[in-house]
């Protein structure tokens, strides 16, 4: 790592607004996150337009607006009114890990929506996107290794029906633990100075189960409490792995906890 630089950890809670996080903290479901926030500065930042996952995370990591990136979501306009196509590849502009990698920083990226996985000075695990026969990891050998290990590796959570909320929360909790496990393993192999880890399980559950999540803790649903605890434990394990690799000093690097956009109840739909 270059001299006179500070190791940096970026942890993303996809789509989680402060009021939702504060409610879970107040219920005692996020003790590690609560401890981190007590010693941190926090604030509200404006998201991008449109405030959705793909352009928001890309803008955060590149410093460019969605208009400059020409990136608006999981689909792109075809030039014909009302016609869109699925985006096949995602790789616009340079991200912070590209720039720092050229300066000698080792980097690790977990669950960022990029296909194919870009070559970086370290490792990169794509997420949230269908494979489409494109490389999902860098180095490429990591893909088969992750799938064959205990727990496997999913690019995204599977779809669950309206009556399968217990299964959805259980799968999300296990997915959070698996991400933390992978970070622990790869931190000891690649030793990144910049580590980005995105927990997208939060956004996926909120899309389908917002009404249940927002009623916690008034309604003490054990599945939701277990999910919050799984998120808290994954957050703690990632931080611990990163800081122990840097000598064990929790103040030996900077940690950012951030989200890409807020969330709320759906009031209606419109189609173009």
From TrEMBL:
Q: Which SUPFAM superfamilies match?
A: Alkaline phosphatase-like (SSF53649)
Q: Name one Pfam family in it.
A: Phosphodiest
Alphabetical list of Gene3D superfamilies matching this protein: Alkaline Phosphatase, subunit A
Protein's name in the database? Type I phosphodiesterase/nucleotide pyrophosphatase
